[in-house]
Amino acid sequence: MRISRIAHPEGMSFVVVEGGEADGAGATCREIKGHPFGEPEYTGRTWPLADVRLLSPILPSKVVAVGRNYADHVKEVFSKSAEHLPPTIFIKPPTAVVGPGAPIRIPEWATRVEFEGELAIVIGRPCKDVKREDWKSVVRGFTIVNDVSSRDLQFSDGQWARAKGLDSFCPLGPWIETDLDFAELDNLPIKAHLTHDGVTETKQDSNSNQMIKAVPEIVEWISSAFTLLPGDVICTGSPAGTAEMVPGDSIDVEIPGIGHLVNPVERY
C-alpha cells in the first residue's frame, strides 16, 4: 500500500495511491479518514493523481538521520576510513521537510551544496528501546529522502545542524510504501540522477548492502536514544556518489519498489 498526502481543490488529505505505473502515472488517490497509521478507513472521495499535488507524505515531529553509514561515502566526504569515523546520529528539523516537486532553495551564503539520496524509515507507533528483531512492529513503511547538505557549513561549523537543517533541505516522498517486505532491504538499489544544463547523469548508483548498520540495527540504535513518535522519519545514510548541485539543476532519487523523488534546485 502506498500512503501519501496531497493538496487537492478542497484542501489537503491523506490518501492511498492505487493502480497506475510505478511512477504513479494513471494512479488514483483514495482519501483516508483521520490519520494514516492504522488500517485505512476511506471517505469515498477519490482524485486522479494527475489532478492533485503530492506533498511530503508525512509531517514528522523530528527527522533522525544516520551519518557515515556507507564506508565509501565516508571516504569521499571526509577522506578518512569508516574505521576511524564510524556511523553517527544527527537530527534535521521538521521545517526542513518538503515534498516531491518542491524546490530545494539554496541561500547565497551556503556553498558546495550536495544531494544525498537515501532510504528512509517511517515510524508507525510510539516506541522506545526497540530490539532489532522487533523493528517491524514499530515501522509504518519506507519512503525516499534527499539529505541535502551544505559541505562548507558542515566543516566550518564543526557540527551538522545548520548544514543539513536549512529550510527545504529534507525532500521526502513520493509516498510511504507500507509493505515491509517489498524488497530485500539488505540488497536494495539506491540511485540519484543529477540533471544539469539539460543533461542527466547518474551520480549515485549503490545498494543498501553497503550499509554499515542495517535497518534493524538502526531502529534499535536510534530508539535507544530517542522516543520515536508516529510519523517520525529515520534516514538510513547516504551511499557514495554525492555531488554538488546548483540552481537550475534537478535531482531524481530512485529506489525500486518505492519510486522517484524529484526536486528542482533554486536560489533565494
TrEMBL record:
- Which intervals hold domain Fumarylacetoacetase-like C-terminal? 62-265
**Superkingdom field:** Bacteria
Which GO BP terms sit in this record?
carboxylic acid metabolic process
Q: Where does this protein have coiled-coil stretches?
A: none
Domain Rv2993c-like N-terminal span(s) in chain numbering:
1-57
The record's annotation in InterPro entries points to: FAH, Fumarylacetoacetase-like_C, Fumarylacetoacetase_C_sf, Rv2993c-like_N
Keyword presence, Metal-binding: yes
SUPFAM superfamilies (alphabetical): FAH (SSF56529)
* Annotated keywords: Isomerase, Metal-binding
Q: Which family does it belong to?
A: Belongs to the FAH family.
What is this protein's name? 2-hydroxyhepta-2,4-diene-1,7-dioate isomerase
